Structure formats: structure tokens, C-alpha cells
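Appendix B. Raw example, untouched.
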Amino acid sequence: MRFIGNKENLVEKIYQILQSKGILGTSFFDFFSGTSNVGQFFKKKGYQIFSSDLLYFSFVLQKAYIENNEVPSFEKLLSKIDIKTHSLFASPLMRIVDYLNTIPQQEGFIFQNYTPEGTKSLDIPRMYFSNENGKIIDAIRLQIENWKNENLLTENEYYILLACLIETVPFYANISGVYAAFQKTWDARAVKKLTLRPIEIIVSNKENKVFNQNSVDLIAEIQTDILYLDPPYNQRQYAPNYHLLETIAKYDNPSIKGVSGMRNYENQKSQFCNAEMGLKELCNIAKNAHYKYLVLSYNSEGIMPQDKILSVLGNFGEVELVEFDYLRFKSNSNGESKTKKFVQEQLYILRKN
């Protein structure tokens, strides 16, 4: 998934660094889960995972990838609907995905508010999705909700299907990287017909727990070996950047406003989008959370100064900073930094006293 700060391409490097530094354990708290890619990686490595995020679409991904430990059978659903598939060996999930790719399109909330035809009365019609793909998203999302309401899905199956949709949508969104704005001309991928994709099911023998709340409120109750922090690096809040994924996940017909059709995100703001507040929050976490090792992923363009981060963390144990270059996320290539192709990942490692 296209997501600012996504560690999918960095997590192997981060893991190798932690291994080389002797940062080991059996439990891992992904404090700002986002796409859940870091939690997924460490789940596959055998860790018990705790993860949390304020964004509901992140919670959906966490439920499907992190908390779920079973290959879904869709037993109730498959006994009720007639599904024809081209493969005799298709998994239950693939059979359901194939079925959802054949259902009639519907003109629901996404079509009505985020496609050119649905918003033709606006001064600037919204071009987040093609007319066809807006209807496909609505049809799939409504069908999943109907199955849930008819008690044809287990909780895990419900979140797995929602995750399939959340993971598919970015491949067809007419955006440059985030959903704070749509492109004024059609991206080639945005005009292709949306085809739902199945997600990977990750099975482990650990009881993994996920949360949809401010992780700071969890620090008193979660004990972990590795506490991993990957906060926002700049003043831009995550919620408005991903408002459409949030709306598709919740499908709650929110009040929206502005050219981009933004939903309210007042209760989903991060303190780390302000340098002073971020340092105070970091101090609170480092002081009061229960962990052996705190690992902070940051980068060289972050708003919290390196010396102040080291000073805050240094109050609670031995701190080490490891830095390495990585390719800049496309939508961050603006302003004076536009000509920079690489930025430095900063990995602050705290061994707590």
C-alpha cells in the first residue's frame, strides 16, 4: 500500500540492525501500526504482536493480518451462495473474492461523492475514482456489510474481506500518493476496472492483540520486549491524507467538506506532528511504558531535532543511533527537498535502565 512512512521496504534492514545489536525478545509492540507491515514482519519471525493505531482502516488491516491466526473457511457463506470459480483448487477466500468481482455495481456513498459523475454538480467534480470503480467499491463494501448483518461471516472473515478491499483500492485511486487531493487528469491505473485482490493470511501460534485507539493510553497495560515507535515525521496529520480509506473502511456516510470531500478527523490527530509536543509525548512513553528496548524510527528531515531526541531518551537508559539512506517517498518530494532522491532513516535504540 502507498503510505507515507511505510516501512515495507525498510523492515528487513531494521530487523538486521536490531539482530546485530542484540535487541531480541519474544514480544513486539507496533505502537503506530499504519499499514501493519512492521507487525506482519515480526509476526512471521515468531514474535507475539501488540499493535494499535487511531485510524480505523489501520485497525481493519491489523485485525486481518495480525490478530487473525486462521485460514478462513467461509463455511456459512459458502453454504448460502452459489459461487462458480474457474479453479477447482481455489481457496475459500479466493472463491469469495472471485464472487465479489462479479456482483452488480451500485451507486453508493463512494460513487456519489468521489467520482466525476457522482459529483458533477460541484464546481470541481471529484476525480478520486472512475465512475465504474466508484460503483464497484460501493457494491463490494455493501455486500460485505450485508453478509455481516446476516451473520454469514465470522469476525475474522469480515475483517479479512474489508482488508482485501482496503488493500485493493490504492491500486485504482487517482492520486499522486495520498488522498488529501486527487489528480486533475486520469492516471493510467485509475481508469482500469477494479479487481478485488485477496490478502495474505499469516498464521502463528501466538495470541496477538490489536487496538483502535491512542497507543499512549495502552502503555500501562502492555508489557513488551521491543517497543517500536514509527510516528509522523512532519506537521502533516495522517488522517486527512488517508480520509478515503477511512471512509471505505467505516462506510459510515460521514459529513464531508471541501474540494477533496474530507471527513472530520479532530479526534485522530497525533501529538508528534508538533515538535515540542512530540518530544513531550516521547518522554512520557519512554518513562512510563513497560519494555526492555525502545526503538524509534525517524528520519533526517523529521521535525524533532536529533540532539533533543537523544537527550530525551538518554534519561531512561543507554541510547544508540544508527542511520542509513533510503529512497524518498514520492509525495514527500516537494519544496526545497525536491531534488533530494534519498533521505536518512534514523533508528534510535534505547536499552532501558
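End of appendix B.
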